[in-house]
Amino acid sequence: MTDWPTAFEAELLRLGVQPARARRLADETAQQAAENAGAPGDVFGPAHLYARHLVAELSAPAPEAGRTRFGAGPVMLSLSGVSKRYRRQTVFADVDLTVRGGEVAAIVGANGCGKSTLLRICAGLTRPSAGTVKRTRRVGLVPQDGGTAGWLTAEEHFTLFGAAAGMVPGRARSTGAHLATRLAWRPRRQQRVQQMSGGTRQKLNLVLGELHAPDLLLLDEPYQGFDQGTYVDFWQQVFAWRDAGRAIVVVTHLLHDLQNVDHVLDLGER
Hints:
Elements: H1 4-14, H2 19-35, H3 40-44, H4 47-59, E1 75-86, E2 89-100, E3 104-108, H5 115-123, E4 130-135, E5 139-142, H6 154-164, H7 169-181, H8 198-210, E6 216-220, H9 228-243, E7 247-251, E8 263-266
Parallel strand pairs: 3-7, 3-8, 5-6, 6-7
Antiparallel strand pairs: 1-2, 1-4
């Protein structure tokens, strides 16, 4: 069985890193793990995923002078004059929203104002009654509830959702396990979703939404059932997505969340 440093170095080489640099990075990573008194896999996660993350970080262009931190990426989602009606009832009308890579937008408003419906329109699952929606091709949706099968385990969900994204089973499972650790969660092999707490099911939904590395993440109150520590972990993950150039749209009813976002769309004002 290939050990972690060898697998890490091999993935770096496959990604185009020069041999001398790949060797140096592998040695430095092993040293960092030793300093943390842990095995590299426990500290950094799966070797192939950490190699890709590291190469992406090393390849990222330096910010241009005078450019703001956010709003510099390409448009990932654009809504123009979007409305939704059911028979004679108008849920919302003339909604405009533009979200670029590296930005977080929040959708707020009272219960029943159509926040979840608008998010489904953003995802392409519901058609608007009027207006236009343009979105990037790679989209991840995290629903407020549902989205999982009670009789399947977390690993089986990783395999199933990964297959839909063209991922081989082993890669889907390792990617899912790696993403779960970012939310301080280690899925139990034999535990079915119906045996999980509400907060753990929501962690699973978050992992499934990110599994295929989408450019646009649509999150519908994704922290339901989270304790305070996990809630903080969630926003740290949102910041990591934003720093990686992804666009995030989050439906929330917690007004103190708004200090963490770049745009606020209040459906209750319409």
